[in-house]
Amino acid sequence: MLKIKNLHASVEDKGILRGINLEVNPGEVHAIMGPNGSGKSTLASVIAGKEEYEVEQGEIFFEGEDINELAAEERAHKGVFLSFQYPVEIPGVSVTNFMKTAINETRKAKGLEEMPANEMLKMIREKSELLEIDRKFLSRSLNEGFSGGEKKRNEIFQMAMLEPKLAILDETDSGLDIDALRIVANGVNKLKSKDNAVIVITHYQRLLDYIVPDYVHVLHQGKIVKSGPKELAHELEEKGYDWIKEEANA
Ligand code: ADP
Ligand code: MG
Ligand code: MG
Known about the structure:
six-stranded mixed sheet; 40% helix; binds adenosine-5'-diphosphate
């Protein structure tokens, strides 16, 4: 599904990613961990195609297609979802209406007609029930006065509605409390299938107790310096990152 080869990328002329190789197949969950500033969010942004990030070398293939030249929006339409990609706060636009627009824009880009209203309602009902989101929440103004947990809930709802092939969840800056952690984990677990894949970026081993990854990768100074099974996350929790840095520099 996703194949990244020798990716080098910079932001504001500063080299951040220095030779990333990563392969993600359908049905897999990959966790990306690593110290602050190691390039985790940059990697997520580059995959999603955020404009500020410059690819200097290497390739990104999504379902066999080189997507490097595609705009973020086009990648989203192909099924790449990055959390926090959408506007922070839109007063007067409800969670539901924002979602309707996003879905119909995606359909339009694919040459499809708007989703019939009854079908849309059915989908909203199904997904919100699955994620235990109540009606009141759906009619609230997007992100206005949302708590951390409600932001997470909205994000997971967006993911559920858009049914991405590849979801990238970058949780590093959010200071997830227990509720938010559970919302993210339950959402991901319920939406996981053999056809889609998830990349979870996290500082918290705790999250990986709920979302069990198939692979854990450690990013350090813009490179994946170690990959392993889920137990690697436990080892990191116990020993920190110093031993990884030493190994990487040896
Ligand atoms: P992580 O998510 O692992 O903490 P980031 O990818 O956010 O790391 O950041 C890696 C490095 O890139 C940091 O030194 C950060 O300051 C820099 N960086 C990231 N995004 C930007 C940006 N938009 N403008 C300037 N510097 C950035
Ligand atoms: Mg950071
Ligand atoms: Mg980050």
